[in-house]
Write the structure tokens for this entry.
Amino acid sequence: MGKSINHLLRNLKKEGLIHIVIWAIFLFLFFLQVYFNTGNFPLTFLNFLIVGIFVFYLNYLFLVPKFLLNKKKSNYLTSVIVLIILGVIFIELILPKPSSLHHIAGLDGINKPNFIIFRFGLPLFFNLILVVIGTAIKMYSEWDKNIQLQKEIESQKSSAELHFLKNQLSPHFLFNSLNSIYSLTSKKSNDAPEAVITLSELMRYMLYQADNDFVKLSDELDYIQNYLKLQRLRIARNQDVTLNIRGSVLQQKIRPLLLISFIENAFKYGTDFKGNTFVCIEININGNDLDFKSINLIGNRKQDPENSGIGLQNTKERLQLLYPNQHKLEIKEVSNQFIVHLNLNLTV
């Protein structure tokens, strides 16, 4: 809230400064031109400017926001007509004028009817121009503010969605890992203590690093390796569980916990009715280009319609939010194998 107020105040100060500079330049050039043409500063034109500025800002600050932006076009048009006419009346009947108006304005040779038209037509046209300019500026300003507000709302919405998706992923992963460890302890396996230590490393990463916007690719790959280590401890027949990482891992960064759902899904459904597990994970890095492939056997395990696919859908949504034009995802089933192929551009 405080950040929004400060942003609004900065915008108001900036807008006010722009108005002051524009009016200062306009008045300077106007009076300079008049002085070169007449040799003095006519009070009549000064009256025009005083009333014109009043008309401009009454329309800019009040009539446009109150009527035009609220789609009350008839009210706005009526108000503008009244404002312009009152401006002309104020100039001609209320503000003081020099006695030698003809001479100052350079109109000595103009007959009276034409002079009357000029006398009332000029301020009318002048005020009309200021109203049109003020309306155009205000409408553009509001349009620009709406665009910025929409971007801010979209940004906040994306952040909220990412926060929700990340929180959804963590319990999902934890439950699966605890099930793995429970399987080891129920079998009284000597690997259970190592599994607990590996899980603690995974949780440490999730708690202290995965909350960042970006993490080092090397740390994310270490996390994946620990996850596969935990799965190998759980699975009796793990000879067909492979992880191949190729390429040069330097200072690349990646959004945290982006690939793990594909890998989780591979282990969840990659065991057949005989207990054989086939999971092959390949990760190739070429500069900022990451190519990920996950292949698993399609086992006979029935999917839970309420809980299955949470991780996959989660990751699809995160990819759309975080890498909208930087990824290509292909998911398919071929010859009793489930294949996920992701090409990701890691350029920040």
Q: What stands out?
A: The CA atoms of residues 104 and 226 lie 90 Å apart. The chain is about 65% helix and 15% strand. The chain has a mean pLDDT of 76. Residues 2-152 form one domain.
